[in-house]
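Weekly sync, protein design subgroup
Attendees: M.S., D.O., the rotation student, P.L. (late)

Item 1: inverse folding check
M.S. brought a backbone from last month's batch and wanted to see whether the design step gives back something sensible before we order anything. D.O. pointed out we never logged the input encoding, so this time it goes straight into the notes. Structure tokens as presented (101 positions):
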């Protein structure tokens, strides 16, 4: 009989995978020079990572949340994410804690 992983095991492996991908991304970012970093920021600032359209700021309990004008995706910076986690202590808060630093 196949045994399903527990919620704690799922969290553990999700954190391991995130840490692995973060390390790869950090190594890549270290190799970029400042002009390349600025170019990427200029190209993508306030653009939806999903569809590339313009993001607009929405205030949620005094926290800035970015919402896409086309696909209506919602995007947060890590600082905004942390602020919402402090406000919300529900199951979604536990899920989001996987991506917390």
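Designed sequence read out in the meeting:
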């Amino acid at each position: 009989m196949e045994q399903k992983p527990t919620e704690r095991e799922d969290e553990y492996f999700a954190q391991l995978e995130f840490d692995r991908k973060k390390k790869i991304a950090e190594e890549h970012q270290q190799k970029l020079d400042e002009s390349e970093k600025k170019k990427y920021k200029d190209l993508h600032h306030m653009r939806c990572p999903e569809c590339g359209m313009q993001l607009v700021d929405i205030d949620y309990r005094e926290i800035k949340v970015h919402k896409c004008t086309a696909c209506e995706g919602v995007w947060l910076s890590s600082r905004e994410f942390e602020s919402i986690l402090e406000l919300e202590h529900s199951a979604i808060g536990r899920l989001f804690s996987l991506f917390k630093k």
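Discussion: Residues 7-31 form the longest helix (25 residues). The helical segments are 7-31, 34-44, 78-87, 91-96.
Action: P.L. to compare against the previous round before Friday.
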